[in-house]
């Protein structure tokens, strides 16, 4: 049994080491590949160890430099944070393996591996930190890495996408920084547990609500909610398959994580005011996302809009704020990360084997590769929420929770959007798999079938992630149970606060 | 003193918002820069401006008495470094976008999201059948 300090620092130590080593071996592609994979596996291993330590409901805390709680930076892992770190580890390995197929060939030497580990570092740090300013720093690490990954190829469309992505994201993080400053001015502390303790005692509760809405805007832009999502469909479809898969898996989910964390821990007081706002945001996010997807014919653009649409479901927990709803949101995030990344990986295969990301220029994949069709249907139907796949259980939980709390419009919108999601998935199926192959696609198919190694590398992570989806679907009980307990833990702030500050008598002496 | 700084913060955010709404990417960079500095000013303000004594703990003491709040200064230092790096990256990105796309107008940068009318121009000839009807 490792101690808490080690358990909490290892998940960020592996990517940090990965960055340093990748920089050292910057001229050697094979060494970088090995380092990337080793660091990702290290992250996954440490995440499993972390999960083993917190799955029973304990909250682990480490204080850097041994400074007492409100003064130094703390790392905190509760069940939600540990689950997010674990899923990050799974994605890191799956997409890392997929990236070995050389989809990023001309760009691989341009620090792809280094930036990949940088992204993982930022994301993991954001999940684990218990300090709001530190969260800002992790956000920036994540952002600068994603900027680099997006602009890696330096093609015309990537540069265009980069301009919009960088601008809108920089505005959002600066807004986040201003919100942090205001919160600090109000409470005099940056430690999230301490802020949670001080906020209810602030005299001017109107200001607290204002700051809550500022945080909602800052994190909402990160999470790509309506109407702040424009950077996502402008940018995602220009990156290559493994890069966009890891973006889709992690970037927006950090925003969702930050929303759920701040609105359960810090701003839980005035749900009567922020609740309807978030409900409106969630509905519009779901509807605009799914309609945007229906209008496109590039697989990557369809899937990008579906990311937005699905973010709406993850906000159900904040709107309804019952343990069932928050648990449902957590389950939704976990299910969605696996399914969405898998769909983007499959899009890469469709591009390789079918010749194009554009549905109009590809087809006939079911005739030549029936098994690929099955592999596509698992995440696609799961995304739409068909039983017995993972999407069904997560949709079922959030919609049941909203019906229980009499949020009928929200639940109705959720059900309708599920149907429209199915429409987009059927469109991809019809176009890429059933339609007869256009003549220009045969060359791509021949080179795909000739290259056994590439096929193996690209398909094995897809199969693995499909197995995860099936596992969540057929053995839903432990996953649902875990999410419910994690949700209940989130809604009881005292668990988090007590873990950070330790025993109560120590508390009085620190804050007289 | 604080109202003056608060006013300066407001003016800076307004200037940044004005610049960011411009279509010229050069102005957008300047807007990001001003916005970043406005954020730094807001951190400084949040730490209160009531003391001008340097935050040094005298020898033999363990508590800081009457000094300025040192925490915002540490935060601002961090934020300055981060925003410097990000703006440097942004300038390089915008410059290479300018060089490759031949325009500074953000509105004219439609490479990633071409308008439907432009699509037939940018796409290769062979793939432009008159109208592809949606498959039911």
Automatic annotation (TrEMBL), chain A:
Transmembrane segments: 6-27, 34-53, 73-98, 110-129, 135-153, 165-186, 206-232, 239-260, 272-291, 303-324, 330-350, 371-388, 408-426, 456-476
Main location per the UniProt record: membrane
Keyword rRNA-binding found: no
Domain NADH:quinone oxidoreductase/Mrp antiporter transmembrane: 131-420
Membrane topology field: Multi-pass membrane protein
Localization (cell): Cell membrane; Membrane
Alphabetic keyword roster: Cell membrane, Membrane, Transmembrane, Transmembrane helix
Lineage: Bacteria, Pseudomonadati, Pseudomonadota, Alphaproteobacteria, Hyphomicrobiales
Entry's Gene Ontology BP terms: ATP synthesis coupled electron transport
GO CC annotations, alphabetized: plasma membrane
Record-stated family: Belongs to the CPA3 antiporters (TC 2.A.63) subunit D family.
Any one GO molecular-function label of the UniProt entry: NADH dehydrogenase (ubiquinone) activity
Protein source organism: Neoaquamicrobium microcysteis
PANTHER family reported for this sequence: NA(+)_H(+) ANTIPORTER SUBUNIT D1, NADH DEHYDROGENASE
Official protein name in the record: Na+/H+ antiporter subunit D
Keyword Cell membrane assigned: yes
From TrEMBL, chain B:
Topology with respect to the bilayer: Multi-pass membrane protein
Stretches the record annotates as Disordered: 105-136
Localization of this protein: Cell membrane
TM ranges: 6-21, 28-47, 74-94
Main localization of the protein described in the UniProt heading: membrane
Compositionally biased tracts (Basic and acidic residues): 107-136
Gene3D superfamilies with a match to the protein in the record: 1.10.287.3510
Matches recorded under Pfam families: Oxidored_q2
Keywords: Cell membrane, Membrane, Transmembrane, Transmembrane helix
GO cellular component: plasma membrane
Family from the record: Belongs to the CPA3 antiporters (TC 2.A.63) subunit C family.
Protein name listed in UniProt: Cation:proton antiporter
Organism in which the protein naturally occurs: Neoaquamicrobium microcysteis
């Amino acid at each position: 049994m490792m101690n808490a300090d080690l358990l909490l620092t290892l998940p960020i130590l592996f990517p940090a080491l990965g960055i340093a080593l990748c920089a050292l071996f910057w001229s050697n592609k094979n060494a970088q590949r090995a380092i990337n994979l080793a660091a990702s596996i290290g992250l996954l291993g440490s995440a499993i160890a972390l999960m083993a330590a917190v799955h029973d409901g304990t909250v682990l805390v480490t204080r850097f430099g041994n400074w007492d709680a409100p003064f130094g930076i703390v790392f905190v892992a509760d069940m939600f944070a540990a689950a997010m770190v674990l899923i990050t580890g799974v994605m890191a390995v799956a997409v890392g393996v997929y990236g070995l197929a050389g989809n990023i060939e001309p760009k691989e030497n341009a620090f792809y591996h280094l930036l990949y580990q940088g992204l993982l570092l930022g994301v993991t740090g954001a999940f684990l930190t218990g300090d709001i300013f530190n969260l800002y720093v992790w956000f920036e690490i994540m952002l600068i890495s994603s900027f680099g990954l997006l602009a890696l190829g330096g093609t015309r469309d990537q540069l265009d996408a980069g301009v919009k992505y960088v601008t809108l994201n920089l505005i959002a993080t600066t807004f986040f920084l201003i919100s942090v400053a205001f919160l600090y001015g109000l409470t005099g502390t940056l430690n999230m547990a301490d802020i949670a303790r001080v906020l209810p005692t602030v005299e001017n509760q109107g200001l607290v609500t204002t700051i809550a809405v500022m945080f909602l805007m800052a994190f909402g832009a990160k999470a790509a909610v309506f109407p702040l999502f424009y950077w996502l469909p402008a940018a995602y479809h220009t990156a290559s398959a493994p890069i966009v898969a890891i973006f889709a898996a992690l970037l927006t989910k950090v925003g969702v994580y930050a929303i759920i964390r701040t609105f359960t821990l810090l701003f839980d007081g005035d749900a009567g005011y922020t609740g309807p706002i978030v409900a409106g945001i969630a509905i519009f996010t779901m509807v605009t996302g799914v309609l945007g997807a229906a209008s496109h014919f590039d697989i990557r653009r369809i899937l990008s809009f579906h990311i937005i649409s699905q973010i709406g479901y993850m906000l159900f927990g904040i709107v309804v704020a019952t343990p069932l709803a928050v648990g449902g949101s957590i389950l939704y995030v976990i299910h969605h990360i696996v399914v969405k990344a898998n769909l983007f990986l499959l899009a890469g295969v469709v591009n390789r084997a079918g010749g194009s990301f554009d549905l109009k220029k590809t087809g006939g994949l079911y005739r030549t590769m029936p098994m690929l069709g099955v592999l596509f249907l698992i995440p696609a139907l799961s995304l739409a929420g068909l039983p017995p796949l993972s999407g069904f259980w997560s949709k079922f939980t959030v919609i049941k929770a909203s019906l229980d709390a009499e949020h009928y419009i929200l639940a109705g919108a959720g059900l309708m959007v599920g149907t429209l999601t199915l429409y987009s998935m059927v469109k991809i199926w019809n176009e890429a798999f059933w339609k007869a192959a256009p003549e220009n696609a045969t060359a791509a198919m021949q080179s795909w079938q000739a290259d056994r190694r590439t096929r193996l590398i690209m398909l094995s992570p897809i199969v693995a992630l499909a197995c995860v989806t099936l596992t969540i679907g057929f053995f839903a009980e432990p996953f649902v149970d875990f999410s419910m307990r994690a949700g209940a833990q989130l809604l009881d702030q005292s668990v988090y606060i007590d873990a950070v500050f330790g025993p109560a008598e120590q508390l009085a002496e620190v804050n007289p | 003193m604080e109202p003056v700084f608060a006013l300066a913060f407001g003016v800076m955010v307004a200037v940044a918002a004005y610049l960011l709404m411009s279509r010229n990417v050069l102005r957008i960079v300047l807007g990001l820069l001003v916005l970043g500095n406005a954020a730094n000013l807001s951190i400084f303000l949040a730490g209160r401006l009531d003391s001008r004594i340097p935050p040094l703990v005298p020898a033999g003491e363990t508590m800081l008495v009457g000094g300025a709040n040192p925490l915002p200064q540490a935060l601002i230092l961090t934020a300055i470094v981060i925003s410097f790096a990000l703006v440097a990256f942004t300038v390089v990105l915008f410059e290479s976008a300018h060089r490759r796309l031949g325009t500074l107008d953000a509105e004219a940068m439609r490479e990633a999201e071409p308008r439907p009318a432009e699509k037939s121009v940018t796409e290769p000839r062979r793939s432009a059948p008159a109208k592809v009807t949606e498959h039911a």
